Amino acid sequence: MRGGTASIGGDYPDPFTDELGTACAVVCSTTVGPCYAATLDRKDISEGYPGLPMRLALLVVDVACNPVEGATVDIWHTSNQGLYSGDDTSTFCTGGDPDATSHRFFRGVQTTDASGRVDFDTCFPGFYPGRAIHIHFTIRSGGQDYVTSQIYWPQDVVADIFATQPDYAVFGQPDTSNAEDGIYDAANEVSWEKRPDGSMLAWKVLAIRSSLAEPLCN
Questions:
Q1: How confident is the model at residue 7 (pLDDT cuts 50, 70, 90)?
Q2: Domain 21-207 has what CATH class?
Q3: Which pTM was predicted?
């Protein structure tokens, strides 16, 4: 499937039906990286750019697996071409591309509801040299940064998309696998499923500290 988020429908199942228990492992932090830039409060972060349409559902909980309401989840990732957007980020990230610097595609922030959940409509990321496929995120609560990290996909999923999806196959396979990536964390791989319309539903539970005084996983 291709065509970006315009083809995303509303019929997605709730992926968070399983009980989480009473102990959730805190997400480990990574560097924010050079490609962060100003964001926008919105669910659809694609700005109409092409790619495999994807609903990304994230559930923010504390270490006791209780939902965290009112937290903000800020995400950013590349286009299918492997470019970040924004005129306020490094030219390494945008490649100096005028179209990328004049837009803010694939950046957005949402606030968790009473269940701790946010949803984004986006497209599967592209790649750039030296990194595995990933999406950056920062979770804030009470105006404070609780964790900055990244999520990933299983390697076989990445390989299949870049072999079979027209919006990705033209670029060939990523030059860096999960195993070769120095930042990749297997604990941060998403769960996913292919929907009947060909789009992707991806989801992940993200546990943060109950307070900033608690230790942060590094």
A1: confident
A2: mainly beta
A3: 0.96
